[in-house]
Amino acid sequence: MPREAGIRLPVEDIDERRPANRVLRQKWWADVVGPVTVPWLIKGVLPSDGVSVVFGAPSCGKSFWSLDVAAHVAFGLPWRGRPVRQGVVIYIAAEAGLGQQNRIWAWKLHHGLEDSAGPFLLIPEAINLLDANADISILESTMRAAATKMEEPIRLVIIDTLNRAFGGGDENSSADMGAVIDNIGRLREASGGHYLIVHHSGKDLSRGTRGHSSLLGAVDTEIEIKDNSGARVARLTKQRDGMTGDTFGFRLESVELARDDDGDAITSCAVVIDDAATTSKPSKIGGQAGVALRLLYDAVNDAGEVPPTCSHIPGHTACVPVSKWRDYCYLGNMTERDTSGTRRKAFSRAITTLQNGGFIGVWDGLVWPVASAGQAGTWQDNA
What pLDDT is recorded for position 109? Predict the structure, then answer.
């Protein structure tokens, strides 16, 4: 018997929440005069009223990065020099649970705010956003109580991670993802503020977030986190009402929290700004990854095409399908052992190495070589 899809809120329940005299907002063409200013939670990064997704591979630092953003909002501290709108933050640590406390304590110690009492509420447990009749009501009441207690509006709600808030649903199902998106919308109606969803990337790194593509269509902002041997970068890959492409380099600095009964250090990490990862040239690459990069240049020279304009791919950049590049690698003797399993694993490792090193860009099944400053755009410059 097939599993039932996520439960969306019945139409009659939606109608009960809406006033009987509700009137839709209207604007005639002649009344549209001048631009509308986008209100920002963090200027140019997160809109005040919207939904974002922060995603990346496991252990890339996405939860630490999101916590750093949350703490800056709670205390009204400028984030990387950008203005912040202060208010109540609700952090749902659905994956880390109580372990999130160590990360918070590390942030406090790193910023000298051990005795602080900011408007930050931690909910260290998994929730169910799939079923409208499960945790939505209790979350609404919890957020109302938090705003009342702090006498401040809710500015930011973080759901970390989407998987642990999915109520056992199928991330690849359009029905289940749609139900979760609907229920987040219901929460936003009740609380206001920005909703930041921490999510995993898929097995195919070129396709962005894991699960059904309706998530990307529903969010206003998308931020990808990558880790290149400790040099981490957050990149703004989608912004519905603003510019994309901004990058924010950072590293995780170990912070000693205390000593255990055996005298060993208890540690966690805090985010430290480090823009070297966004400005440094890629190092030389060799081995199988170097061969794969040479073959990518061959593929682009032979069959590259410039795709339609897209915020994820630099303008006027020739690309080839990843499958085309893979064919070149298989035919180009990238590995000594000519077996399908060996070739497949070597190609997968090469993609990861080259992408993390900044040698290639990958998006939606397309790949292109990234030439650093001063390069002529030929494979020999990177070999």
Answer: 96
